[in-house]
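User: Can you model how zinc ion sits in this protein?
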Amino acid sequence: MKQCVVCKSTIEKGSYCDAHSIAKKNLENRFKDWQKAYGKLSWKEYLTRMVNNQEIPIGNWAREVADYLLKKEK
Ligand SMILES: [Zn+2]
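Assistant: Here's the modeled complex, given as structure tokens:
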């Protein structure tokens, strides 16, 4: 058995539970939209904005994933 890297819930395979897996996909899809809208935007900058700007309606799941990925980047 494995654990979701974000919430530590038990999962059968991979690194993320279902909820965080979906959230990660949403986060990645949204990044593409943001790149179109803002041009030069790095993944790290994007994640930083997602974590720090509570007004961006991405939801708690996605924000938790962004927070995890950002810590991993450092
Ligand atoms: Zn999870």
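A couple of observations from the model: The chain is about 60% helix and 5% strand. The chain has a mean pLDDT of 94.
User: Helpful, thanks.
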